TrEMBL record:
Pfam families named in the record: Amidohydro_1
Protein name in UniProt: Amidohydrolase-related domain-containing protein
UniProt keyword list: Hydrolase
Species in which this protein is naturally found: marine metagenome
Domain Amidohydrolase-related: start-end pairs: 76-232
The UniProt record lists the keyword Transmembrane helix: no
GO molecular function terms listed in the Swiss-Prot or TrEMBL record: adenine deaminase activity
Amino acid sequence: MFLGLSSAIQNLNAVAIGDKDADLVLENCSLVNVYSREILPETQIAISQDRIAYVGKDASHTKGKKTVVMNLEKKYVTPGFADPHTHIDQFVSPAEFVKKSLLCGVTSLFVDSIDIVSTCGFRGFKEFIKMTHGLPVRFFHVIPGGLPVDRKFSRVKTLSFTEEKSALKMREVIGLGELFSWTKVTKRDSKTMKILSKALDNDCVINGHTAGASGKKLNAYIASGILSCHEPINFDQVVERLRLGMWIMIREGSIRRD
C-alpha cells in the first residue's frame, strides 16, 4: 500500500516542480502546520500516489487532465494521529479495527500482539503481520516483550531467542513491545537482557511498562535502554519518569481511564 520514500523521491520531485501531474489536488484548505504551529488558510496540497508532493498557495502547476481536484471549503487538514501502543489482536481483525481508527483520524498504529503470540507463537505472529498488509493505515509491529510474566503460573506460548532475532529482521517489525514483567529486567533475567541487547544493537524501539516501579528499580529499568511508558497513574509518577528521560504516553484505556 505505502511506498518507501527512497523509491518515491524521483516522482515527488517531478510533481513538486511541475514536470509531472499530481493524482490529487486539495484546494481551499485550512492547513494545521504542526511544525510552525500555525493554521495556514487557503492552502493547496498536491498528492502523488500515497505521498504529498507540494504544499503552498498555488498548486496549479501540478494539475493535469487526469488530476482530481477537490475544494475543501476551508475545512481543516491535519497530519494523521499515531497510536503509539495498542493491542488490536485482543478484539477484532486488523481490517475491522482500521474501519474505526480511520474515522478517528488515526493513520498509524504501533501494534503489540501479545495475545496472538500467547496462543499461536511465532507462526501466529507472522500470520497476523500478513493480515495488516494492504490496509490503508501504516502498521508498525513490535515483538511482545516478557512473555510469560512467570512460567510458574502461565503456560502461554512465547518466542525463542532465535525467533526474536528472526522477527527483528522483518521489515514490518521496529522493535520490542512493552516489557511488562519489569522484574525480569531488574533481576537481569538472561533471556530478557539478551533480547534487549540485540534490540539496542539494531537501533530498535523498546517499549516500557513500569507499573509500580520507582526509585532504584525504575532507574535500573531505564538504564537497560527502555525509554517509554504508558503506566503512570498520577502526577508524581509521570514526573519521576520524565526526570529520568522517559517518554510518557497519556492514555485513555478501555479498562481504566488514567
